[in-house]
Amino acid sequence: MDYEGQKLSENLFFYIIILFGSIGWVYGYFLQDFTYVFYSWSVGVFISLVLCVPDWPIYNKHPVKWLDCVPGREGGDRGYRLSIWCNWLNPPRGKVPE
Hints:
mainly alpha, rod-shaped
């Protein structure tokens, strides 16, 4: 999920919860029963969880371009581990990371 996808997911979650909570509050107010407010809010939470928690393709429309590893900046044990990590992220062409 990219940054724009996180923003979209958070906004969807917020507006779905507010919408279902408001509708439930109005309906429960007219019937004078708080359980309808809770039921409506619960449905909104369930729908927003299904829409917002999984990493749906709609949340990946603006992928982040990470910087390539800088060759020759290896020093000591940390540099060795960093080079292994860089090779795993960006393997040379024709080779598959182990």
